[in-house]
Amino acid sequence: MGGTIRLFKFSGIQVYLHFSWFFVAAYEFSRRAGVYTSPVWSALEYVALFAIVLLHEFGHALACRQTGGSADRIVLWPLGGIAFVNPPRRPGAMLWSIAAGPLVNVVLLPILSIALVVVGTGVDVDPTDLALFVRHVWWINLGLLIFNILPVYPLDGGQILRSLLWFPLGEIRSLQIASVIGLIGSIALAGVSLLLGMDIFWTAIMALFLISRAIAGWQYAKALVQEEEANRAARLVPTVPEPDRPAL
């Protein structure tokens, strides 16, 4: 939360923006020079990216509240957004809290597809800036959806996998498996990104973030094991609450 700026509050959920967002916005704006005839559209495209991310995060937060959990913060930063959600310790509650984010992107797909048809892309002539903008936003939304549903913990897909495994395997075992898959998947994802020629700087940052969260998931699973052993010995009800889970 350090270095964040308060933007607004909606339905009891405070939205923050990290100051580094502005530096990355300037960098991305310079990279997009020449894509549109007017630079205004490049700025609007970057804002549209984070508008989609924000809607995605609100999907997580509002769904978590439906389950009886708590969610009061969303942070936007260069890697996207994080909704700090803490659903009840039940697989169904966690599954809905996490799945609601990608479902927002699914709902946006037909809406943006209709917009794409309305503005047209131009067959015999170059597309207008508006048509290019809608096309790019369409692909941004699809890209975010595909990336987030990858079964790599702590991405939404990895946490959905963990929730599904929770039903037959229990809370601890499901988290252990998801964390290991997340660690392996993060390294593999970084390797594929480099092979595809993606920006090494952003690839390294994303890989480090995913790896750190996968390790944190494994450490939390160890804490749950210790809690379970202590409760079994003392015959007490679990008292250690799960910390807020970043939903990407």
Q: Describe the main β-sheet briefly.
A: 5 strands, mixed
In N-to-C order, the SSE pattern is EEHHEEHHHHHE
Helical fraction = 55-70%
Instruction: State the separation between the terminal residues, measured CA to CA.
Output: 15 Å
Give the strand line-up of the largest sheet.
1-2-3-4-5
Shape: globular
Secondary structure category: alpha+beta
Q: What integer is the average pLDDT?
A: 86
Number of domains: 2
Radius of gyration: 20 Å
Number of DSSP helices? Answer: 7
Low-confidence stretches: none
Oligomeric description of these chains: single chain
Strand content: 5-15%
The total count of strands amounts to 5
Chain-wise SSE layout:
Layout: E1 4-10, E2 13-18, H1 20-31, H2 39-66, E3 70-77, E4 80-86, H3 91-119, H4 129-148, H5 156-169, H6 171-195, H7 200-234, E5 245-247
Parallel strand pairs: 2-3
Antiparallel strand pairs: 1-2, 3-4, 4-5
Describe the model.
With 248 residues, the chain is an alpha+beta fold. The protein has two domains: 1-149, no CATH class; 151-236. The chain has helices at 20-31, 39-66, 91-119, 129-148, 156-169, 171-195, 200-234, and strands spanning 4-10, 13-18, 70-77, 80-86, 245-247. The chain has a five-stranded mixed sheet. Helix 6 packs antiparallel against helix 7. The model has no long low-confidence stretch (mean pLDDT 86).
